[in-house]
């Protein structure tokens, strides 16, 4: 059984938007991965640009660390503009 | 549906798992949170999903065969372009689904191997032959129609990658059903012979389509856990009834009749009541004794073997370039 490498596919749907992860596929190399990504994810005008990245090149955070990593931000509401009071008379700020 | 084979009980011994983790997992499901690939999950949840997603993927792949049979004989360029695009979509659906299954820790090659060796199940519906052009209309209208009924609730399935694959799939399915119904419309409004062809296709596909939703509730051994885990949102019978209710008026609109003398509208329930389904036929097809089971598997195996040199050449070329770059 031969295993072909796995690639993650990112698509920019319109100029001005960031590339967004749309899925993954198997291909022997980057050229074939791009060709397959085009066939698989852009059959209905979904893309202006495609990136393919070897899946094993991605380092992901551990879901078990999610609380440690992200919960501290929850209590810091003073990082948001709505935390501060500005008199109505001042108008939009 | 595409995962009818799940009705056989899971034979693996139950894993011993921490009650606290199981409780926390179920609480996340109950709160409608999505489960993502690296999250902790019960072994049975993982196994159920791998089997379900793999069977679904195999169904999309084998599903290309009955329609592929008519691509070269489509009656016009318009029909040929549409059918090619549809069959290509189904191949894509298979690939989205294999990728979703792989996030659970199984290699696509392993799943493909299981399909080719006959060890894996796929939907019973693709073991019926496409005898005339009207069958292409009937498949789009009825088979894709039934698939949509099943796949729309799966867009809300608790497993993130499966739900996301289903959203992509559902966006593409609607054209499949509409092009099929258009074919039926043209035939139904055509000559006497064309009308008869449309009626004959409906006669042959109707019952197998009702079987697509799987055995009646109560005989389905996997439903309880799948419902608790929010993989399954509606029962087989609920989905089947929805399909009948949606489809019968569409058939009557075409002036076609359904091959079910017991079919009648029940005023009290506002549902179309349908007659008894031949579950012996269903079990025979699932077991491998349908009209085309051997043919379908042989065709898949042939395609896989004929493509082997392409896969090997691509890998060899990639390896050669890697060595060159390293030198
Ligand atoms: Fe499909
Ligand atoms: Fe389809």
Overview of this structure, please?
The complex is a heterodimer of chains A (93) and B (327). Chain A has 93 residues and is of the alpha+beta class. Chain A has a single domain, classed as Phenylacetic acid degradation B (Ubiquitin-like (UB roll), Roll). Chain A has 2 helices and 3 strands. In chain A, strands 2-1-3 form a 3-stranded antiparallel β-sheet, with helices on one face. The longest helix of chain A is centred in the middle third of the chain and has 12 residues. The termini of chain A are far apart. Chain B is mainly alpha-helical. Chain B has a two-stranded antiparallel sheet with strand order 1-2. In chain B, β1 and β2 form a beta hairpin. Chain B is globular. At the A-B interface, β2 and α1 of A face α4, α5, α7 and α13 of B. The site of one fe (ii) ion has 5 residues of chain B, from α6 and α7. One fe (ii) ion binds next to α6 and α7 of chain B.
List keywords for this structure.
heterodimer, A: 93 residues, alpha+beta, Ubiquitin-like (UB roll), 22% strand, elongated, B: 327 residues, mainly alpha, two-stranded antiparallel sheet, binds fe (ii) ion
Largest beta-sheet details of chain A:
3 strands, antiparallel
Number of helices of chain B: 13
Number of strands of chain A: 3
- State the CATH topology of chain A: Ubiquitin-like (UB roll)
Averaged pLDDT of chain B, please?
Answer: 94
Strand content of chain B: under 5%
Summarize the topology.
The complex is a heterodimer of chains A (93) and B (327).
Chain A: E1 6-12, E2 20-26, H1 30-41, E3 49-54, H2 66-70
Antiparallel strand pairs in A: 1-2, 1-3
Chain B: H1 19-30, H2 43-62, H3 64-68, H4 77-102, H5 108-116, H6 134-154, H7 160-188, H8 192-211, H9 223-228, H10 236-253, E1 264-266, E2 271-273, H11 279-289, H12 293-306, H13 308-326
Antiparallel strand pairs in B: 1-2
The structure holds fe (ii) ion (2 copies).
